[in-house]
Amino acid sequence: FKNKGKCMSVMALSVIMQALAYVVPCTILCKNKNTIRKVFNGMALAYMLSGAVPVPSGIGSLEMIFISLMKAGFKTVNTASAILMYRFTSIIVPFFAGILAVILLKK
To answer: What is the pLDDT of residues 49-71, one digit of tens each?
Structure first.
């Protein structure tokens, strides 16, 4: 914590990254302003609850909890699509971004 400016910028970027990850399901499920808040809160709650299930990186438990929470207000197909889109953007996209960074930094 010697450089408080860097620490604060890392924390701010982390919060922004997490907020953007929570918004990903909204791209599929949200039709109006009320559902944006509902989906954002549901994603945060599912993410929190999935930490209680002892599986590596929460894969599987997050999907189950999110679908269980959201199936009351949305179609199951749309909910499953939303959580799969979240997984794609939170695992696959950073993986390929890392590959690209390694290739560019090796030169």
So the answer is: 888 888 876 678 888 888 888 88
Report residue 75: phi and psi, to 5°: -70, 145
Asked if 12 and 27 count as a contact pair (C-beta separation under 8 A), the reply is: no
Q: Which stretches of 24-92 are DSSP H helices?
A: 26-29, 33-50, 61-70, 76-87
Q: What does pTM read for this prediction?
A: 0.69
pLDDT in tens, 70-87: 888 888 888 888 888 888
Cα(8)–Cα(5) distance, integer angstroms? 5
**What is the dihedral sign for C-alpha 58, 85, 32, 23?**
positive
Q: Which residues contact 1 (CB under 8 A, 6 or more apart)?
A: 7
Overall residue count recorded for the chain in this entry:
107
| Rg of the chain in Å (alpha carbons) | 16
